[in-house]
């Protein structure tokens, strides 16, 4: 899920990341990273 930061399509990766994060249980971390990008 760390590759979300470097994705060309952040919205598609956001959707993929949300599903992956639910399994990994680290959604909060990736959400913080995404907020820094936008």
Shape: flat
Task: Quote the distance from N terminus to C terminus.
Answer: 17 Å
What is the makeup of the main sheet? none
Structural class: mainly alpha
- Continuous helix count: 2
The Rg value, from CA coordinates, equals: 9 Å
Beta-strand fraction estimate: under 5%
The ordered H/E elements are HH
Indicate the low-confidence ranges by residue numbers: none
How helical, in percent, are the residues?
Answer: 55-70%
Task: Tell me the count of domains.
Answer: 1
Mean pLDDT: 62
Could you give the count of β-strands?
0
Report on this model:
By secondary structure, the chain is mostly helical. The protein has one domain. It has 2 helices and no strands. The radius of gyration is 9 Å and the shape is flat. The model has no long low-confidence stretch (mean pLDDT 62).
Observed structural traits:
38 residues, 0% strand, mainly alpha, flat
Set out the fold topology.
Blueprint: H1 10-24, H2 27-37
Summarize this, please?
This protein is mainly α.
